[in-house]
Design goal:
The protein is an alpha/beta fold. The chain folds into 3 domains: about 5-145, Globins (Globin-like, Orthogonal Bundle), CATH 1.10.490; about 155-255, Elongation Factor Tu (Ef-tu), domain 3, CATH 2.40.30.10; about 270-390, Rossmann fold, CATH 3.40.50.80. It contains 11 helices and 12 strands. The strands form 2 sheets. The protein has a 6-stranded antiparallel β-sheet, with helices on one face. It has a 6-stranded parallel β-sheet with strand order 10-9-8-7-11-12, with helices on both faces. Strand 1 and strand 2 (about 170-175) form a beta hairpin. The longest helix has 28 residues, at about 120-145. The relative contact order is 0.11. The protein binds flavin-adenine dinucleotide and protoporphyrin IX containing FE (HEM). The site of flavin-adenine dinucleotide has 24 residues, from helix 3, strand 4, strand 5 and helix 8.
Length: about 400
């Protein structure tokens, strides 16, 4: 809780901080990287370049201040969970909170200038540390649950035991630990971080990949879409590296599985809605049901450019056989119907036509505009917010309401 002295100051200055949020975080990152260049190996340089990370950090701090003041309508817990799980996937340590806090508050002072009195600086310092303490406590628990005593021991080495071409730009890697130790269980919807060394000049980069295979398989599978260059945007760094450089026999450093979204939550009907590479958590969910609850009513709605661009499509005929209550609704912009495992809809997904016969638990994953469209369509059709989980393959700009 904010102290009685700080609460009115934070309330009075929140509009100012909110309107300068991205300017502050835009000042913060270069400042922190100048003082701590080693952190360039921890942060995602793609998200720095596109500005998504500064948007996510500004959105989270403003949402937290609103939450402390009781002004926010946004549920707070999911925002905290998302950040804590992401931090744990990266091995963030409590000591690093001191570094971030110092540079973030210096950025506030520089961007807002003389408007920041010592009292205002102290009030926002309090907001930062209340947030930091909540995150540090939650992260400690998550490290403990993953069997990690010290975040420096996060990474484990895995060997690629198979590599499968799924589509022209998507491939899967099947991985087994090199130490022959146990393969940890995971909840469908969880992801791992993959750390890759890009050479002396480019250092290390870390990305997250959802586990796309059967949770009980004894190996892990990740399914990666290679991002090609598009207009002004360069090719994706890590997806390109994995595509071009990593094959059977190579090793990768992986985090334990984390992620707060359970793609098979609940026990009743399940609705999985995905587009493009966003199908990966849905496929882990279906593989999980084969073993744990094959009779559960489940609908997969998937949208893609065409059947031959649809990742992991090859598993659907088997899954339709193993899951008697699985219904698949496919939307292809270019149907090429001969390749589809079930009758298809032509065009982009129409939220009004998503089957909703019974109250279902919903999991959505795909590009942000797709998820926004599907979520608002389902809300309009009466699905309660708390039944809809949304997995964002990037900084989550949906939960803090920044997108
Ligand atoms: C929880 C989670 C689960 C995920 N699961 C999967 C999964 O199952 N499969 C999967 O394929 N991906 C998944 N992702 C996404 C994945 O983590 C990576 O973001 C993705 O592979 C792209 O990484 P990259 O290094 O190839 O691209 P990056 O180098 O990070 O680039 C990303 C984008 O930013 C643009 N960009 C980079 N630099 C600049 C610049 N200087 N100027 C303008 N634009 C720039 C690039 O052009 C590209 O479009 C997941 C992400 C999360 C958070
Ligand atoms: C109170 C303090 C902090 C807040 C509010 C905060 C907030 C956030 C948010 C909102 C995200 C995006 C989560 C998502 O993917 O949806 C994030 C990611 C991240 N955070 Fe923090 N964070 C804090 C402290 C730290 C610290 C101490 C570090 C360590 C250096 C750190 C490193 C990172 C990294 C590396 C990412 C992933 C970046 C990316 O993928 O672009 N954070 N954080």
């Amino acid at each position: 809780m904010l102290s009685a002295a700080s609460a009115p100051i934070v309330a009075a200055t929140l509009p100012l901080v909110r309107s300068h949020g991205e300017q502050i975080t835009g000042n913060f990152y270069p400042r922190m990287f100048r003082a701590h260049p080693e952190l360039l190996n921890v942060f995602n340089r793609g998200n720095q370049a596109t500005g998504e990370q500064k948007q996510a950090l500004a959105g989270a701090v403003v949402a937290y201040a609103g939450h402390l003041l009781g002004e926010s309508t946004m549920p707070w817990h999911p925002i905290l969970e998302r950040i804590a799980h992401k931090h744990v996937s990266l091995g963030i340590t409590p000591a690093q909170y001191t570094i971030v806090g110092r540079h973030l508050l210096d950025a506030v002072a520089e961007v807002l200038g003389p408007a920041v009195t010592p009292e205002i600086a102290a009030a926002w310092d309090e907001v930062y540390w209340l947030f930091a303490c909540e995150l540090i406590a939650r992260e400690a628990r998550l490290y403990h649950d993953a069997g990690i005593g010290d975040p420096v021991d996060l990474w484990r080495t895995w060997r690629v035991i198979d590599r499968v071409t799924e589509t022209a730009d998507v491939f899967s890697l099947v991985l087994a630990p090199t130490d022959d130790g146990p393969v940890p269980a995971f909840v469908p919807g969880q992801y791992v971080s993959v750390a890759v060394d890009l050479g002396a000049d480019r250092g290390q980069q870390i990305r997250q990949y959802s586990l796309s295979g059967a949770p009980q398989a004894g190996t892990w599978r990740i399914t990666v879409k290679r991002l090609g260059p598009e207009g002004d945007r360069p090719a994706g760094t890590v997806s390109g590296h994995l595509h071009d450089r990593v094959g059977v026999g190579d090793t990768l450093r992986l985090s334990p599985p984390v992620g707060d979204i359970d793609a098979v939550a609940g026990t009743g009907p399940l609705l999985l809605v995905s587009a493009g590479i966003g199908v990966t958590p849905a496929m882990a969910a279906l593989e999980h049901l084969v073993v744990h609850d094959p009779k559960r009513p489940v609908t997969l709605v998937h949208a893609d450019r065409s059947p031959d661009a649809h990742p992991l499509r090859r598993h659907l005929p088997r899954l339709l056989g193993e899951l008697p209550n699985l219904m698949v609704q496919l939307w292809y912009e270019d149907p090429m119907t001969a390749l589809a495992p079930v009758p298809v809809n032509v065009g982009r997904v129409d939220a009004e036509q998503i089957p909703l016969d019974e109250p279902a638990q919903v999991h959505i994953c795909g590009p942000l505009p797709f998820m926004r469209y599907v979520r608002s369509g389902l809300l309009r059709r009466g699905v309660p917010t708390e039944r809809i989980a949304v997995e964002v393959f990037g900084p989550d700009l949906l939960r803090a309401g920044t997108a």
